[in-house]
Every structure is written in structure tokens, then in C-alpha cells.
Amino acid sequence: MQLIDTHVHINFDVFQGNLSSLKQRWQEAGVVHLVHSCVEPKEFQGIQSIADRFPELSFAVGMHPLDVDKWQERTGEEIKALAASDKRVVAIGETGLDFYKADNQEKQILALQQQLRIARQLDKPVIIHCRAAAAKLKEVLSDFWLDEGSVRGVMHCWGGDEIETQWFLDLGFYISYSGIVTFKNAKQVQAAAKTVPSDRLLIETDCPFLAPVPYRGKTNEPAYVLHVAQYLAQLRQIPLTTLAEQTTANACRLFDIQLNGK
Predict the structure, then answer these.
(1) How many CB atoms lie within 10 A of CB 218?
(2) DSSP reduced 3-state for 94
(3) CB-based contacts of 39-43 (< 8 A; 24+ apart in sequence)
(4) What is the helix (H) or strand (E) element at residue 127, kind and residue range?
(5) Which pLDDT does position 83 carry in this prediction?
(6) Helix or strand or coil: residue 128?
(7) CA 214, 217, 218, 221 torsion: positive or negative?
(8) Which positions ≥6 away from 141 have C-beta within 8 Å?
(9) What is the enclosing helix (H) or strand (E) of 117?
(10) Less Cβ crowding at N or C end of the chain, within 10 Å?
(11) Contact at 8 Å (CB) between 25 and 221?
């Protein structure tokens, strides 16, 4: 059985010095590939260095909505140049909107739009973060689709309800679930997770955050994506091996990942 963790942050300080043991555990859990997200371009070199150590790591470059106060005139060109500089870059992001922790909405929207343009220019998917902003995000994306064309991508660490989930499915997005779906009180997320078509479903940890049950409250890590997969398989009433096969194929298709030299 093969699993792909489609969203990790193993460059964070909490993991430094422990990456070898981290790899041993993700291999034991069946994780054969990881997609490393990026919250701002200055992380790029460090993520590259980790990818040099672990050939099963692909990565993204972009700016998180909570970091857009750092956006400067040349940031877009910097993201584009970095994305084009390394064939292991498989996505732009993470970008998106977060109105839960910040009120600089216009600045977030402008940064998102610029990163969508870069993704179109380079023919790469986007990794979208969305918190307390689903309606506005739908509006921004729909307008962009009409004015400039569609972009493929994933709603990562998704926490929306069934209606919101359908909005982004209709826009062509994949939907990725993290450890949140395993939480006892995540009834809305669980209901939505049952409705996602099998060819649009992805799994992730978003480590070091949001460890799934039974590790909730602890530092999350890529090996724990197995618990997300197990929970989703039970929720969707399918064998774990089937869910693993589906989500792995979906990740390979979205991010153009080649496994086992194929």
C-alpha cells in the first residue's frame, strides 16, 4: 500500500535534527512521496536542501495569506523564477485567503491573484489555504476563471461544509483532508468528506500541525497520514487499500508525480 502526504512543513524547527527518524517512520507507514508546502519564498533554499536529502519529496513555492504583509513589488517575479528554477517544484503556494486571523483582505486577494497568474503561466497547480473566507474565495476564483482562465489545484486542509465543498469541486479543485476530519466534533467536515468524488480526494497531515486522533495535541508528522487515510476509508465505507490507491493516483495526477520511475 502506498500513501502520499500532499502537504507537509518538515522544514520547521521542531523537526530539525530528527529528519532521518522521521523518514523511517513515514516509510514504515507506507508513505512513498510527500509534497512540501511553502509559506514564503525565503523558505525555498531550506526546502530545496531537504529535497536534496529525500528524493521522495516534491515541493511548492509561494506566499501564505497570513504572510502577505511581506509581499513586495518583485515578490511575484521571485516566486515565478524560483518555481521555474527546479523541476521538483510541482505547485505554487500555499496561497489563498485567511480572514480568521487577519483583516488585510485586499492585500491577500491581490497576492492570491498574482500567484494564480504565475500558476497559469507555468502550468502548475495551486495549493489553496482557506479559513473563514470561503464565499469571498469562491468569488475571487470565479472572477479569475472568467477574466483570465482556470487554474487547477487543491483546497488543502479543507474544513468546509457540503455546500462550500461543492463550490470548489465545481471550480475543478481537488479536496484534501487533514487530521481535522478525525476530530470528534468535526461533524460538518466528516459529512462533506463523504461527498467528494473518489477522483478528487487527497490526504495530508499539514504537519507539524493538526495531528489526527489518536495523536491529537501532539506534534504531527508525515507517518500520521495513515490515520487520516484509515479514518476516511471507514467514513466512506471502502477498504483502506482502495482509498490509498485512489488518493495516491489523484496526487500523482494533480502534481505530476512519478512513482517508482513510472
Answers:
(1) 11
(2) strand
(3) 39/9, 39/63, 39/64, 39/66, 39/67, 39/94, 40/64, 40/67, 40/70, 41/75, 41/78, 41/79, 41/82, 43/11
(4) strand 126-131
(5) 98
(6) strand
(7) positive
(8) 116, 168, 171
(9) helix 105-122
(10) C
(11) yes
Grid coordinates belonging to 88:
521538483
Could you report the average pLDDT of every consecutive run of 10 residues in the chain (262 residues)? 98 94 98 98 97 97 97 96 98 97 92 98 98 98 98 98 98 98 97 98 98 96 98 98 98 94 46
141/147 Cα distance (integer angstroms):
10
196, amino acid identity: V
Helix axis angle for 134-147 and 162-170, nearest 10°, is 10
Tens digits of per-residue pLDDT, 125-141? 999 999 999 999 999 99
Query: Torsion-angle region of residue 206: left (phi > 0), alpha (psi -120 to 50) or beta?
Result: left
The three-state (H, E, C) secondary structure of 135-203, written as one string = HHHHHHHHHHHHHCCCCCEEECCCCCCHHHHHHHHHCCCEEEECHHHHCCCCHHHHHHHCCCCHHHEEE
Distance of CA 59 to the CA centre of its chain: 10
- Residue 35 in contact with residue 4, Cβ under 8 Å? yes
